[in-house]
């Protein structure tokens, strides 16, 4: 009987120990918040994993049909005819932001004074078609002290600015905007490849006057024209191109972690992308925006 009592005591002790183990509260699990920029939603978004610590969501919305836009006898397609914003939308948006309007047959951005902060009814815009080999022609003017830009071969990256995936043809009032004296050798002045190659000769007209401009992209060679003169030349997907990016504000490990990879592989595997115009917070006008496809 004594042995049986001892056995019962041992069983009770074991059961109590097991119960204590079962009731021990679980260790708290740290749940990291999900960055909405890295969530691919819907059929047009794809998560791209660059490496273990770097990724982005690429957006590929449907493109407009160029056959629906006027074309002249020389093959120039009117992307903006002075009366309609057809084909345009905000970068990372479905519609054209309200700050972009039509003013005397010109496409105008009305300044907010917020710089690149971009008010909720502002933001960069793109023409919703991807171009590969082409000549883009346009005219531009700015208000006093204004800054803007034109982008080519841009890709749409969720929650990120357009300039991390696209070279910029600088639009600037050289005489009154402080950026004109920044950078190296004038590489932030009008018509320059922003922060990389200065436009020379530098003959931008003063604010409130129209300038003519063009950007030609053909099999990796890119040319900027300003008021009839070729002022910049560079060659994509080459060691020279990689060196330009590595020595700019878009360098590896710099302020914009995604930029170096996106810019060195400009236009992605297809080497194509969007044409875009920048909201830099200042008044800027564009007109006679045309593109010619180069086969």
The arrangement of helices and strands along the chain is: HEEEEEEEEEEEEEEHHEE
Look at the structure and give the mean pLDDT.
91
Radius of gyration over all CA atoms, rounded: 27 Å
Q: What does the overall shape look like?
A: globular
Count of beta strands: 16
Structural class comes to: mainly beta
Helix content: 10-25%
Low-confidence stretches: 7-11
Q: What is the strand content?
A: 25-35%
* Straight-line N-to-C gap: 102 Å
- Major sheet details: 8 strands, antiparallel
The DSSP helix count reads 3
Give an overview of the whole structure:
The model is unreliable at 7-11 (pLDDT under 50). With 295 residues, the chain is mainly beta. Strands 3, 5, 6, 8, 12, 13, 14 and 16 form an eight-stranded antiparallel beta sheet that branches. A five-stranded antiparallel beta sheet has the order 4-7-15-9-11, with no helix packed on it. It has helices at residues 2-23, 239-246, 259-264; strands spanning 45-51, 54-59, 76-80, 88-90, 100-103, 106-109, 125-131, 134-142, 147-154, 156-157, 168-172, 211-218, 221-226, 229-235, 273-277, 284-293. Helices cover 12% and strands 33% of the residues. The protein is built from three helices and 16 strands.
Quick take:
With 295 residues, the chain is mainly beta.
Which properties best describe this structure?
295 residues, mainly beta, 8-stranded antiparallel beta sheet, 5-stranded antiparallel beta sheet, 3 helices, 16 strands, 12% helix, globular
